[in-house]
Amino acid sequence: MSVAPAAAAGRYTLVQKLLRLNFSLVLLVVAIACIGFLVLYSVAGGSLEPWAGPQIARFAIGMALMLIIAVIDIRFWYRLSPFAYGVALVLLVGVEVAGETSNGATRWLDLGPVQIQPSEMMKIGLVMMLARYFAGIDRDRVSHPLWLALPLAMVVLPVVLVLEQPDLGTAIMLTCSGLAVIFLAGASLWYFATGVIVTGLTVWAVLASQGTPYQMLENYQYERIETFLDPASDPLGTGYHITQAKIAMGSGGLSGRGFMQGTQSRLNFLPEKHTDFIFTSLAEEFGFMGSVSLLALYLLVVVFCFAAMASTRDRYGALLIGGLGATFFLYWSVNMAMVTGLIPVVGVPLPLVSYGGSAMMVLLVAFGLIQSAHIHRQ
Amino acid sequence: MPTRPRRDATGPAAPNGAVGRLPITRRGMLLLGVQGAVAGALAWRLRHLQVEEHERYRLLAEENRINVRLIAPARGQIFDRDGRPLAVNIQNFRVVLVREQAGDAEEMLDRLASLIDVSEAEHARVLADIREKPAFVPVVVAEHLSWDAFARANVNAPALPGIQPEVGLSRHYPHGPATAHVVGYVGRVTERDLERVETIEPLLRLPEFRIGKTGVERAREKVLRGEAGTRQIEVNAVGRVMRELDSRKGEPGEDLHLTIDIGLQEFCLDRLGEESAAAVLMDVETGDVLAAASSPSYDPNPFVLGISYDAYDALLNNDHRPLHNKWASGQYPPGSTFKPVVALAALGEGIDAGERVFCPGYLKLGRRRFHCWRHGGHGWMNMEDALEQSCDVYFYEIARRIGIEKIAAMAHRMGMGEEAELPIPPVSSGLIPTKAWKRASRGKEWQVGDTLNAGIGQGFVLATPLQLAVMTARVASGRGVQPRLIRAQAGQPLAPKPVVETGIDPRHFDIVRRGMRAVVNGRHGTARGVRIDDQFWLMSGKSGTSQVRSFTNAERARGLPDKVPWKHRTHALFIAYAPADAPRLATAVVVEHGGGGSSTAAPICRDILIAARDRLMAAPGTGPETGMPRPIARPVDRA
User: Fold this and answer.
1) A143, A184, A330: best mutation site toward chain B, by most B Cβ within 10 Å?
2) Where are the alpha helices (DSSP H) in B391-482?
3) pTM tops 0.90, yes or no
4) B140-193 tens-digit pLDDT
5) What string of DSSP letters covers A1-49?
6) Strand partners, B186
7) In angstroms, rounded to a whole number, what is the distance separating the alpha carbons of residues B195 and B139?
8) For chain B, is the Cβ count within 10 Å smaller at the N or the C terminus?
9) One of B170, B295, B336, B598 is an active-site residue; which one?
10) Bridge-partner residues for A106, per DSSP?
């Protein structure tokens, strides 16, 4: 790797920093976002309003934010990590106390002019905190139960708070991304093997507890699980989402109905066609080719994250890239698995494509951090 | 890839830096592998859904396009008292266009235009409609086609995707203008109509649906409308209807039988001729309205299809106001036709009918003179004389004595000053002034002069022709009959409206009836020229000539009232009943700016009563006393 003289001292000019950006990732992010704009334009019946226009504006702001975060030294973010985690945690508690409720879930915190969703902040805060923790301890201590207890607590605390809201999707994502960082940090594989067994038992317990006084999930969550297992049982009720989503995707076929020709989304058979279920609109209009292409782009992002991680010498930076890459992976894999009927509907948006500001900002901040780690990888 | 497991062994000592990243890389590879596997699973799932199961889901998507269409119910029909049709449903051959199925709608329209007549304006309207409405909503291209044109469109339908020939039902009023002010008409649903209803039924959104706009059609909309049926149809990929899956017949609306006799109704309207006038003919026993005409009238049929702007404008700008329902909502000063009410009020207050009042031609109140219509005066008058000769001074005098409140109370007991309950929107209430009313609406105190004016039916007093007919019927029968317009619903006769208790001494009615008999049959009667020479059908009546503006004495002397422009001429009124001895029918006629009551309105009343007599005699079995209407054959439901 050729390094400029100034770089050896760890100091780059702004231009040098920008030139060191991981342009493959930047291009992938822009490409995926553009696909999102197209689909939003289409589901609005060929109009920038009400979704595509605001989404483009948000993306532009988010990209600027990403670049600003990227050029700030990774050591700054290293020091900031505990605060990011702490603030997100405090806000999560705040949601418990004074959150805004919509659709039966309390996720928003109204802070005067802005509404924030602390569970989204936590997706980044948790990865930052864990990366900071594992970068700071000896590698041979990683698998020591005592040294593992603390990061596990860091994961469990927000997960419990998020489940209280209740938001199963975010809870799953936090758990998995947290475990990914611990895994990357090198915790013994035995722990993970044990974890898989324990998880299996837990799932069994959750399902077995239904209807008993010790019921572990909300009724609507059980309903979603049941619907997932047998969507046809209630085609106009909770199963409606999945059934209609499958019909839309399936009717797209190999090459799709064509841009702006999706009758299912157009005739409003599809619920939440612009948010969590946007993938079905895309799959209907662009067919298997289109949906697999998007899948490939997403996978490429993950691959480039891995490459960036592999080339990063700084342990904090590497863990940060790996953890945030895993978070991104979880977004799209959970969303796609959900709309294709592989897992229950848990309410996770399709990253960079679904309409909505919160997820867009979180993702672009995450990519900003990845870029920062990449720029300052020495 | 530089990572190899064995190099891991060199790492443990270094907590950070170059060596420490190697396990991360190895673990990262593992994680990437898992992620790749998940992506592979998703791709496999998508292939399954989108490629293998494509056919199945495509069919399901088509099933999504099974749609439910509403069938407009057959609207209840309206008949006259003997079952002759007044408002019926006729077959309407029409062609509709569904954009979704047409591909290029404009092209289809052009092709269709080569087969049937589609005017430029229609063409533009259809294109505008198509743009406005969702793609799958049918837009009517042409209606009321001849059989030939319809057949041409039908035969060529296969070459015209998206064009659908249909047979619908359309409202028709066989008697046109004669029934316009009773039956009313239906028309396209407008935003204003939607504002009026509480819940908007989907039915109201159907392009061919028509809603009652005026008259019985509007007042009995709920009964006449019926309930929509539904039709589940399956459409194929290009949207053509493949088959009907399920069809639920709606409930047709209920038929109504009015109390109107269409023969007499037409006679009345004809008799009113070119005048701006109204006539009401009532059964004095049952209150059945046998005829109710408002002239000039208009043809309601164009309104069903959508009347042209020019035609509508012409109706609006006509100074005889054809659209105005004068018999139910026209309000006129009743003039001398109000005198029977004043007489009854006076009798009720104990004034002796035999007491005589001297009429010198005027009554002096302070420095003001209230004139009698006869310049030289009538001399000594008792109540019957005063009614016969319509002496104003006599009624000034008794009105002054009993006061306005007693007159108003009697007017209300005779059905005036309040809206009659008739299914004819709008029905006006007229106006019977009181002291409280004047204070509230004019902010001025009541004057004795106001009472005098009210005593001869002038001043503030206003009445509708309907109210005058009801009042006449009550005088004639001595009972508080109420007007009725609908005698049967869905073949079931409705009970007559209950008689209102007036609490008036029958002997008082006798006195007033003697006076009214003399008006037509007496030696000095104001309407002795229109006497009916039939001892079994003697007419009694009362004339009225009401001013629409006041004249000075000088103008009076010059005979000006007869020379002023039409708009300023007096209204001519006449109320009558027959036979004089055993009253059966009552009538009231108002001719706007028609001049004198006995010269203009009285002959009309006479002719109406004679026509009614002939009608009763010609068909004694189907006259006003008939019970059930004849059974009615309903046209085949084509929906």
Assistant:
1) A184
2) 392-402, 404-413, 435-442, 448-455, 465-477
3) no
4) 888 788 888 888 888 888 788 878 888 878 899 999 999 999 999 998 888 888
5) ----HHHHTT---HHHHHHTS-HHHHHHHHHHHHHHHHHHHHHTTS-ST
6) B212
7) 23
8) N
9) B336
10) A101
